[in-house]
Amino acid sequence: MTGTHITVSNPVAFFAVAQSSYIPFGGTNTAQSHLMQQLAPVNTWGKNFFVPVSNIERDIVRIVASQNNTKITQTGGTIRTGVPGAQTDLDSLQAGQFVELEILLPDSGCYIEADKPVGICSYLANHDLPAIHTHSSQCWIPAIEQSVFRTQIAPFISYSHINILYYALVFTPIGTKDSTKVAVGELPPTNLTGGSWIDNATANMSFYSVLLDNDTVSYTFTNPAGLGVDMDSIEWYINRVKKNLPYNQLEWNETFSVGEYEIRMWVRFENEDTISKTGILKIHSCGQSAVFYANNVYYANLPHTTICTKDVNFRAEIEGEYTEIRWYIDEEEYEPENPLDWYENFETGEYEIKMVTLFDNGETVTLVATLKIQIFWIKIKNIRY
User: Fold this and answer.
1) Which of 73, 116, 136, 148 has the fewest CB atoms within 10 Å, counting from its CB?
2) In the chain, what are the domains?
3) pLDDT (tens digit per residue) in 116-167
4) 189 contacts: CB under 8 Å, gap ≥ 6
């Protein structure tokens, strides 16, 4: 199923389930285990990732491309071969194609960069090591830019007849790793204990495997520089329908018909605040033509016009014999090759367009209108951010 593209008309949650899987594929000392994971939507994928190594010391990682001609670079880890459907070339992945890596200690994790958004999932291998037996599991890795300052984790409650250990894998910038604290239940925050930080100089990140040995309370992790455990996001809606955009898209374009639209931007900040801003977008004229009419008996002024594209066509329709047509943009004369039909590329802003027509009977007609080239925007500021 890796690389399958799923789209729906309304928001849903999608869970990938495998009844029994060998992790890694082709392993000689593995047992089958089931997998279940809620998939992260494509608009939450990112470009910069740091993948730490679990306390099992060997992890499998899949990188999936969301767009054609995606180029990926990796520092750390080894590309696996012989995996059905997997690619081995990182230079030009097509949408839906994936690469599988293996990360082993003493490697200090793997740093991954992509020129287009990718999804990364880390798999815990179900294999035997000295004194360790594991069952496979999987976890989506958040992009480095999707860190948060505070997060809470609740360990699973173990069955009485099974001895299970739970760990939280935390990563944060090297320079502020010692600022990472954990509060167990209602106890005050303290430094992490029981392990050690492992630095990755390439990614400028450090990670720590924390044993969660109390299954009756939650663990709250904090760091002022951010922890790699969650994500912040920006979402856009047109008439209450979510727009499918890449992760955290600040600028986008859309072709609207003439009409009225409700535009909403929803933001979740890294401090977990959420803000929503809604505005009404009115499109009076979204075509590419601004038309001037003039003749020696009657002329009609062009209403002030808002154009949603920077390339604007101008057309003059004139009844009667005329001698000359002159065009002016902000009082500066403009001389197109064809004064009856021409176009110009404008930057965003407001312009005075003037057409002067000289008729054979000596009459002069001047038409003036305002042309607005707009980019519609919504600004949100979190004062506590």
Assistant:
1) 73
2) 15-227 (no CATH), 233-283 (no CATH), 289-373 (2.60.40.10)
3) 889 998 887 765 544 455 667 778 888 887 776 778 887 666 554 445 667 7
4) 181, 182, 183, 220, 222
